[in-house]
Each structure stands twice: as C-alpha cells, then as structure tokens.
Amino acid sequence: MSRHHFQLLKSLNEEFGEIHGEPIYKRFRRWQSVKSPETSLSQQRHDAKWPQYFEQSVGEFGRVLESVRFSLEHIGSTSVPGMAAKPIIDSMLVLESEQDLGRVEKSLEKINYSDWG
Questions:
Q1: Fold that domain 41-117 belongs to in CATH
Q2: How many helices (H) and strands (E) does the chain have?
Q3: Other CB atoms closer than 10 Å to residue 85's CB: what's the count?
C-alpha cells in the first residue's frame, strides 16, 4: 500500500470509523482481495436481451431475499440502450435498512453473487 493510500485510509477512518459496522481498515483489506473474473470479454453491440437478463436477476434476488425491502438498479453500460458494452449485467442493490446487510450478503452468496463494494 502506498503512503498516499495509507494517509487516505487514515483520514477516512478518522472521519467515518466504519462502514456498515465494519472498520474501514478491515473493509479495505477485504476489498483488496476481490479479484474480477478472468475473462476475455470484449465490447459487443448492444443486445436487446440485456434488460431481460437484468429483470431475471430482479426475480432471483426477490426469491432469496424474501422479506427484505430492496430495489435493484441496472447500472453500467449494458443499461444504456444502443450502447456497445462488455456483456456483464452490473446491478446495484439498494436496501431500505442497513440492518439487513449481513443477512442479505449471506443470502446472495448462496446464489453466487459477490459484494464488490
């Protein structure tokens, strides 16, 4: 970790202390270990099925999260009609209550979703 990164982490820790109950230093170390999948994906023409794939994931999340109040947003280049993109459907999960976070993370791990921070 560079000196600059260490100073930034130190100032974040002093300002916020933790994120969702997890100390910032610990969260940063966890994020450092996240590796994107090794793929040879390249940009493709827009696929009209991308929104449909996203809607399928909304249903899948609804089944595993049951009573949790949430919304799932389609983000990234596959959410923009007509835009070329790598064929990965990026989503942002928005929870009504951060108290649900731990339970949600465990539920989503069961269906092979990862929290990338």
A1: Beta Polymerase; domain 2 (3.30.460)
A2: 4, 4
A3: 19
